[in-house]
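SEQUENCE-TO-STRUCTURE ENTRY
===========================
Question of interest: how does this chain fold, as expressed in backbone structure tokens?
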Amino acid sequence: MKKLVLLRHGESVWNKENRFTGWTDVDLSPKGVEEAIEAGRVLKERGFMFDMAFTSYLRRAIKTLWLTLEEMDQMWIPVYKSWRLNEKHYGLLQGLNKIEMAEKYGDEQVLLWRRSFDVPPSPVPEDDKRHPKYDPRYKDLKPEEIPATESLKETIGRMVPYWENDIRPALQKNNQILVAAHGNSLRAVVKYLKNMSEQEIIAFNIPTGIPYVFEFDENLNLLKDEFIGDPETIKKLMDAVANQAKRK
């Protein structure tokens, strides 16, 4: 049996402040550090021994991976990074508070920005220094590969080639793989693996720091998937993600 573990990074400082983060490279909060360590403890307790790991170019995912593997005493395994596992780019929303935006533009508009399948937020202008083209970590990307904003559909579009060309072949050759990434890039993986509809994936939420395990047979046919933890607690965490931009 082959196992793929998806792990959304621990709480970031902008998660804590309820800001749109996207490609902005913010760090983990103290709670996020604890969540990453706890994920490692749980995975070690369950007997996971990873052959390799994948993560994004963003520190909150990279540090989550480090802390998880350190807790498991598995920091020696190969780690591969790709911009294709980055969070969805939130354009000009990046850095803005979700509740404040809901108060200004209304719950429905913010929900559209957060959860629409194919409607991206307003893009970052080309001459804005926050545009990813000015970031050295993306210097080898083609201009058309560098987003100024993204919808979930576009996030899925840049993730699927990485799954097919890198992660899937690695899983075929190995038994256990860990992917530490972000809410939307991992939702892209989930939609692809489970063949979920647009409406199903829009309603699906991944909490920070909770390992999500996929089990496959030797031909990579999906057998089962489940979050590790208390179902009631996980549901509360998923609901909290869904309600981040709702006014009280």
About this structure: The chain has a mean pLDDT of 93. The radius of gyration is 17 Å.
